[in-house]
Each structure stands twice: as C-alpha cells, then as structure tokens.
Design a protein that fits this description.
Oligomer: single chain
Shape: globular
Largest sheet: 5 strands, parallel
CATH class: Alpha Beta
Helix content: 40-55%
CATH topology: TIM Barrel
Order of helices and strands: EEEHEHEHHEHEH
Number of domains: 1
Structural class: alpha/beta
Radius of gyration: 19 Å
CATH superfamily: Luciferase-like domain
CATH architecture: Alpha-Beta Barrel
Strand content: 15-25%
Length: about 170
C-alpha cells in the first residue's frame, strides 16, 4: 500500500504470511496517561498502556475506561490495562532508587526525585513486587519494563527481575 500527498490508495489484495497467532487480529495497544488515550483505547484498541503513573491514577483511569466502554457498547472484560514502567531493582534500595532517578531524569530532562516513589518501580525485589501488586490491584495485567540505570545497574536489575521478581508475580 502506498500513499502520496493529497491522495491515498488502498490495497485490497494484500496478505500477511504467516498469519498472526492472535485471532481474529493482533491486539492494539494505546499508550498515554490522559483521558484522550482512554477514549482512543475504547474506540479503537484493546489495551490501555499508560506510563509514569501511580497505581491510584491507574485505578481512576480503569474506572473511566469501564464507563466509556459501557457507553460505547463494548462488553466488560474486552479491554485490559498494561503498564510501561521504568524499573531499577537491587538488594540496595537506595542505590536502585538513585539509579532510577538519574536514568529517568536524564531521559525526560527533569528532576524525578519528587515523582520517584509515585511512578517508578525502584527498590529491593520485595519493594518492587509489592509495588507491582498495587498496580495489579488497580487493574494492570501486563507490564513492559524499561530498565533504568547505568550498565552495572541494568545487569543487577535484569538479574533481580528474572530471578527474584518475575517468579513471584504469578502469585498476584
């Protein structure tokens, strides 16, 4: 399919091989934290995926999504919630937190100290499992992790996530 400025063409005989495993189609994930992203999810998508958001704000978004879905005639349970989360996990809580603040602050060019405890997954494996539990309690069913930290912290975080956090998430 190709499009040029001012016109568009639709290709009706296109095929996708191999076919996607998800049937009848690949799920559509819509990112964003504001109401507009929730409205887009209800209208066009399957999964709402906010980022840099507190568990409580997820809960408010979930309630709004349910209300919007009912108005749109979407069946309950047809939509779900994922989270894009910056994570830094370490046996040393302070080191994990400081690495997360530095890495995410650099990415967004702002001071994340005031927001760290509200929107980042940073701390010991127990801290992170507990925090993920808070998100799960507000409707999050899937998480996309972004590792926050320098190379050494990334290695520590990946090891802690794989060996100490992820195995415990099935309990949630």
């Amino acid at each position: 399919m190709s499009a040029s400025k001012g016109s568009s063409r639709v290709c009706h005989d296109a095929t996708l091989k191999p076919r996607p495993a998800q049937q009848p189609r690949i799920p559509i994930w819509v990112g964003g934290r504001r109401s507009a992203s929730i409205r887009r999810t209800v209208r066009l998508g399957d999964v709402w995926m906010p980022y840099l958001i507190s568990p409580e704000a997820i809960g408010r978004g979930a309630a709004e999504m349910t209300e919007q879905a009912e108005k749109a005639g979407r069946p309950p349970g047809e939509l779900s919630i994922a989270l894009f989360a910056w994570a830094s996990v370490d046996a040393d809580r302070t080191r994990a937190r400081e690495q997360a603040i530095a890495a995410v602050g650099k990415t967004y060019n702002m001071d994340f100290r005031p927001l760290a405890d509200k929107v980042l997954l940073a701390g010991t494996p127990d801290d992170v499992v507990s925090r993920i539990g808070e998100y799960a309690a507000h409707g999050v069913r899937e998480i996309v992790f972004a590792i926050a930290g320098d190379d050494r912290q990334r290695d520590r975080t990946e090891e802690c996530l794989v060996n100490e956090v992820l195995p415990r998430l099935r309990e949630l």
